[in-house]
């Protein structure tokens, strides 16, 4: 059960080749711009979260989130405790 931290749309694309059904994805920073891309992929929205503060800072509306849940830093820490390995995806 890996946790994939996605920091960019390019990182999201690269992550898809390594994703497996028991993995979890978190969109952080500019990675929130990949929400639409990921909701059109085989990854179910229930397996994806995005940082609420990053979505708000970038003007991502609830309708643009495509059913992806927003989380805070405390929840992110909880996910890092539950999953191993934790993999970061950048450009």
Order of helices and strands: EHEHEHEHE
Number of strands: 5
What is the residue-averaged pLDDT?
Answer: 95
Work out the radius of gyration: 12 Å
Secondary structure category: alpha/beta
Helix proportion of residues, in percent? Answer: 25-40%
Which percent band covers the strand fraction? 15-25%
Global shape: globular
Low-confidence stretches: none
Strand order, sheet with most strands: 4-3-2-1-5
Could you describe the largest sheet, including whether it forms a barrel?
A: 5 strands, parallel
In whole angstroms, the N-to-C terminal distance is 23 Å
What is the overall number of helices? 4
What is the structure about, briefly put?
The protein is an alpha/beta fold and 91 residues long. It is built from 4 helices and 5 strands; from the N terminus they run E-H-E-H-E-H-E-H-E.
